[in-house]
């Protein structure tokens, strides 16, 4: 296994050595199909970690395990210092509120306007807010993603890039400390993909988030990552900065950067 040396980040975002996510020897199978075979990874506070890997390598499975959407077979998943695999539903929900998850398709409610999509999420978790407070928070978060004018639109009226932004707004409205991005630029044109990547960095800086970003988009990986990991055969095969892995002695690792 290759273990690339990590160089000091130059991103002007405050980072610490405190781990907000720490996975130890994570195993996950589906029947006889062993997907994860001892994954170990750490995400530090304020860091953007990008995970690369071929299709079916277990990237999305890993982040679904982090929020308890999938039960693991073996291992530890420590989030904010707590092993979530030992929590009951109530304890797991307390952790989930602090984690935002941006799905590939943005997962908006098609029958609700943008305002109602955001308001539904906010009121579900902050029942003591007044209608005025809810409205103000909706407008603030839409401004953060550059879509204030879309507040009364329906999801069917939005472009793919706008849907991603609204999905991100719905994630941000609960002020998560961790954001898990599952293919944030999939299906988008080059310019829109760049805009979403820029937005990921803006969110990291403004909200001081820690993130895992699953992507096949190497431009997104280069632009957003403080550090990268590459999954192969169910384990972390290589890690380092974009520049380090691009120059790796391992031909398979370099193949991602061609």
From TrEMBL:
InterPro entries: AAA+_ATPase, ABC_transporter-like_ATP-bd, ABC_transporter-like_CS, P-loop_NTPase. Residues 21-258 form the ABC transporter domain. PROSITE patterns: ABC_TRANSPORTER_1, ABC_TRANSPORTER_2. The keyword Transport applies. Keywords: ATP-binding, Nucleotide-binding, Transport. Pfam families: ABC_tran (PF00005). One of its GO terms (molecular function) is ATP binding. This is Phospholipid/cholesterol/gamma-HCH transport system ATP-binding protein. The lineage of its organism: Bacteria, Pseudomonadati, Bacteroidota, Flavobacteriia, Flavobacteriales.
């Amino acid at each position: 296994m290759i273990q690339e040396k990590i160089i000091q980040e130059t991103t002007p975002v405050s980072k610490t050595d405190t781990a907000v996510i720490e996975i130890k020897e994570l195993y996950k199978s589906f029947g006889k199909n062993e997907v994860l075979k001892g994954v170990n990874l750490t995400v530090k506070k304020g860091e953007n970690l990008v995970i690369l890997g071929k299709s079916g390598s277990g990237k999305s499975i890993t982040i679904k395990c982090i929020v308890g959407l999938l039960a693991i077979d073996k291992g530890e998943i420590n989030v904010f210092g707590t092993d979530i695999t030992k929590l009951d539903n109530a304890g797991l929900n307390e952790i989930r509120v602090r984690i935002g998850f941006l799905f590939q398709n943005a997962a908006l409610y098609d029958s609700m306007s943008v305002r109602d999509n955001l308001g539904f999420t906010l009121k579900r978790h902050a029942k003591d807010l007044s209608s005025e407070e809810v409205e103000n928070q909706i407008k603030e978060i839409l401004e953060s993603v550059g879509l204030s004018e879309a507040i009364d639109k329906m999801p069917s009226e939005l472009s793919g890039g706008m849907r991603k932004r609204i999905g991100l707004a719905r994630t941000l409205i609960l002020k998560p400390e961790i954001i898990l991005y599952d293919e944030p630029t999939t299906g988008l044109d080059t310019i829109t993909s760049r805009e979403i990547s820029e937005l990921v960095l803006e969110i990291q800086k403004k909200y001081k988030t820690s993130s895992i970003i699953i992507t096949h988009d190497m431009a997104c990986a280069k632009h957003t990552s403080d550090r990268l990991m590459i999954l192969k055969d169910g384990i972390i095969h290589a890690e380092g900065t974009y520049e380090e892995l691009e120059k790796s002695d391992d031909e398979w690792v370099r193949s991602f950067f061609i």
